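Re: beginner question about structure tokens

> Can someone show what the tokenized structure looks like for a real chain? I only ever see the sequence side.

Sure, here's an example I had lying around. Input first:
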Amino acid sequence: MSSDITSPEPGEHSDLRPAFHRELDEIREAIAKLSAGVTEAIPRATEIMLKQDLEGAEYMILGDDEVDAKSVELEERCYSVLALQSPVAGDLRQVVSALRIIAEVERSADLAVNICKAARRIYGHQLDPRLRGIIQKMGSQASQLFK
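And the corresponding structure tokens:
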């Protein structure tokens, strides 16, 4: 006798706890959206430094507060799920993984902001062509790592 029981794919859940699984799906989607924004910020920060775009640097620095707030909100939602829903097995791993991913995404956004702050400090100074090449290469590698 064989069993046809399979675990559901992300976004597919049994109907036993629909609100709980809807919350997990919403958290997953919010993390994907936050990650997409940070993925775009990494090459943008490199471009800001290379072009000495002071206005762009200020915009990204100020925009970090929004990323921080969204990260805190997502972490609170995860902790709420842990406290109120007592997830087990795959659901527990999903929530714990979400918490770790949120922290890494927020840290990556902070690192992009650090690049913008460095661009602000060197504003008005010419970058050595060799240094420009190194910065470009580092920016490309950082972008590839995040994708």
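Each token stands for a local structural state, so reading them left to right follows the chain. The chain is about 80% helix and 0% strand.
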